[in-house]
Amino acid sequence: MNGIYDDPWAYELACSFRDVPAEAGVLLRWCAEHRPESAGPVRTVLELAAGPAEHARELARRGLTATALDLNPAMCAYAAAEARRAGVALEVVQDDMTRFDLGRRFDLVVTMLDSTSHLMTLDAFVAHLRRVAAHLSPGGLYIVEMSHPRDRLGDDPSVSTGWTVERDGVQATVRWGEPTDRLDPVTQIADDHVTVTIDGDRVIRDVVPYRFWTATELDAAIRLAGGLGVAGRYGDFGAGADTVPLTDPGAWRMITVLRPV
């Protein structure tokens, strides 16, 4: 039986509650805030564990030279096809986010939608960060979006495990995680049960291993990897007057901006 990551169209539908153009705009605003003026404008972007590569495609629409990398061949094929359909230039690479070597550097690298939850060990996270550092241009940034620790450690999670979306006349009801999906206190891994029901009759079921990372573990991985330092932390996609600190009660993500040191 195919899982949710083997059906990129359904996965993109399930995640269509995201405002990708608005988020891409904030990514570029953070670049303006945290990149040195001598670095110039952002011209190149690499999205890691990109899946359908929605953010890479949106940044390509804005004139950036965009590359999307993912391990899943179905996701890679879908991202390339959607880019062609939209008339935007997108390079798609099938590779592992802990071992990739593209032979060039980028002004901006991003990992979105908590895709670092697929890194199951500290060694894997450190290897990932070292690969990112090796691919950043001078003055480049790595922006990584993770779930807020409150979702797994608090009594009042920041996000719901169930939602309904509608796009192009198609409706999907999504359950990403069930109350019985418990986080293993030793490995910090949970097997999240996923159910996506499309237009009331087509059902996709899957079990997705999820590795929870705390803020202090992220800091440890950054120190162990070397080559990167924290430039900023945010709890939502907002910049300027709309900035949401990670510690704000309304924060629902853990977004970290890293730069070469």
Descriptive account of the structure:
There is one protein chain. The chain has 2 domains: 4-148 and 213-260, Rossmann fold (3-Layer(aba) Sandwich); 152-210. The protein is 28% helix and 31% strand. It contains 7 helices and 11 strands. Helix 3 links the parallel strand 1 (44-48) and strand 2. The longest helix is centred in the N-terminal third of the chain and has 15 residues, at 20-34. The N and C termini lie far apart (45 Å). The mean pLDDT is 95.
Shape: globular
- As laid out across the biggest beta sheet, the strand order is 3-2-1-4-5-11-10
Radius of gyration: 18 Å
Number of strands: 11
Let me know the CATH homologous superfamily of the largest domain: Vaccinia Virus protein VP39
User: What fraction strand?
Assistant: 25-35%
Number of alpha- plus pi-helical segments = 7
Q: What helical percentage do the residues reach?
A: 25-40%
Oligomer: single chain
Structural class: alpha/beta
Topology pattern, helix = H, strand = E? HHEHEHEEHEHEEEEHEE
- Indicate the mean pLDDT: 95
Distance between the termini: 45 Å
- Under CATH at level 1, the class of the largest domain stands as Alpha Beta
CATH second-level architecture of the largest domain? 3-Layer(aba) Sandwich
What is the count of distinct domains?
2
Give the low-confidence spans.
Answer: none
- Enter the CATH topology name of the largest domain: Rossmann fold
Question: How many strands, which pairing sense, and closed or not: the largest β-sheet?
Answer: 7 strands, mixed
